[in-house]
Amino acid sequence: MHTYIRGLIRRPIRSALLATCLVATALPAAATETIKMIAIDGYPARAMWVKEFSGFFIPRVNEELAKAGNYKIEWQEAYGGQIVKPRGVLEGIKLGLGDIGIVTTIFHNSALPSQGISAVTPLISSDARVVARAVDEIAREFPQMQAEFDRENQVYLATGVVLDSYQMFSKNPASGLSDLDGLKIAGAGYNLRYLEGLNDAAGVRGGLPNFYNMLQTGVVEAAMLWPEAAMTFKINEVAPYMIKADLGAVNSKTVTVNKQVWEKLPDEVKDVLQKVAVEYRDRVAEVAMERAEVSLEKFKESGGTVVVLSDADREAWARAMPNIAKSWAEKLDKAGAPGSDMLAAYVDKLKQAGSVPVRDWVAE
What we know:
Blueprint: H1 2-26, E1 33-41, H2 48-68, E2 71-79, H3 89-95, E3 100-104, H4 128-141, H5 144-151, E4 154-160, E5 167-170, E6 184-187, E7 202-205, H6 208-216, E8 222-225, H7 227-232, E9 241-244, E10 253-258, H8 259-264, H9 267-301, E11 305-308, H10 311-320, H11 324-334, H12 339-352
Parallel strand pairs: 1-2, 1-3, 6-7, 6-8, 9-11
Antiparallel strand pairs: 3-10, 4-10, 5-8, 5-9
Helix pairs in contact: 2-9, 4-9, 4-12, 11-12
């Protein structure tokens, strides 16, 4: 009797559970929301940092978002002048021509003065990994860098160092500092001020895509760039002589997002973009170091000649330069920004990482 009653009780319970399972099975899974984003850079896809953005950053973002499955990004990639020129990324993201992009900060010293922190401290570190981390830490410890991008209607994600060190490439043989005297030398941004340490040298502003023609046509006799870029942009064909001066690694790329686009993004997507931007920072710096060594060997194999600048010449060059670091910091100080504090903190980070400055830009 009791067994019969228990059976009557169990049947409705089993039926209810079965009905619940059937309903759950019938309900559609939550749909993945698609977000459209336009990624821009004025440099061509063959430029190392663009190649890594397309081949590393975007796939990693997709991979991270796929874990939860709530969102996916439909990417439109526009590089090499499709939407903006190399100098136009900052303005392009500001105006919403692109949603996310890689700003070449050396073109915008007036709008983004604090981004020049590594450029105004030459001859300290030629390790892209060390410089990238130090600059990015400064950007997170001091509000100045992010505030500058905010004024340009964009959100800072992470900085990037795409070169191990600026070197000097010339059309004619050069073996020492005196061989650079009186030359017209192509450069970009703050590095043109390095030439103030040379006798009668004239800096000529340009960008990587233009350096080949500038050298070929005689507009300049030399150019400051790094081995990977020299081989990528075939500078070795027109400037087969390199003075290995190890002027230092410089942050020159920053990943940013249009502010209005950022504000509309779900927090989950923001977190992924921020996380992967730091991964991209470290990835690009590592690739820069790997390619620097390989590119230097390729430069030699292509017939290029490399001369290592002596320690005495490097020190003489550093001493002959104006203290551009101090001038940079004081200008920020006068504008109400913590320039001197940022400079001291940055140089200290490099020293803690094992870098030995040829000249102490903070103390002098």
